Amino acid sequence: MNQRALSFLTLIILWSLSAAHARTSYKITEGSYRSDLVKRDVPYWAMVPTVQSRFPTPVVYFLHGRGGTPRQFLEVDGPKILEAHVKNGGRPFAVIALSGRVENRDTYWVNEARGLPWADMILKEMIPALEVKYFVGGHDENRMIAGISMGSHGAFQLGLNSQGMFRCAAGHSIVVRDYATASQQFPVAFGTRAEFDRRDPLTLLRAFIDRRQVPLKKVWIDIGKQDDPLFLRQARLFKQELARIGYSANHGDKLDVDLTDGRHDYDYWKKRMPEYINWYSRCFLSSSR
Questions:
Q1: What number of CA atoms fall less than 13 Å from residue 194's CA on the CB side?
Q2: What is the reported pTM?
Q3: Which of 76, 249, 260, 274 would you call most buried, defined as having the most Cβ atoms within 10 angstroms of its Cβ?
Q4: Is 9 domain-assigned?
Q5: Domain holding 77: CATH number?
Q6: Residue 36 belongs to a domain
């Protein structure tokens, strides 16, 4: 086949894929998973394409912030923006939002030092079950994790504690707590200093640096200029360590700390949601580091 014919065929294929994406519609469901590990029903929210291919659909696991619910993806206009993204030719992917609360307590998405094995429940029970139910994910190249505020801590803690499970991780209005405030405000989740270190994204990341390993293919972190000073301080430390391990814009990463106007609120998240959705899609398309 000559170059001109090959170029024409490529255009036809791309047009066909774009047209197929534009016709994609989504089904939204809410449900619960009965966990043996935590002995209770755990709610979730799912947005999955109605037309499935022969292969599992890429999936973003989305984690809410403190006091939130799995519906937070809906509350930040995620469904509307994802549907517009696909209609305009973007690659479809599923979103499954999980729960990080038990009764009136925020688990911080960790195996609680004095409570429930919430992280194990998500990684070992809930994700495998939901991927069979909705025909999504299946392997790390088809799976990423993202979250807002407390959910950003969860995204990196789970991503770093389960190397090889997620392709990318994203943290929006990123919260990486220090031991003093974590132990004071969330003693059930974080426990002693040694227990905190096993749950702290910054400590976990530094261990990868010491081993000269890159734990995730792509990362995104952001936090607005007007966010909480403590969160900003910790975010700068986390950005510094991510840069040390080699994450940068040159590889498709986003380390947007203290660059964009915004507070720790819904106005900020809604404004940036189109950027988030576009990056999630590109995570699945991007080449390896």
A1: 0
A2: 0.91
A3: 76
A4: no
A5: 3.40.50.1820
A6: yes
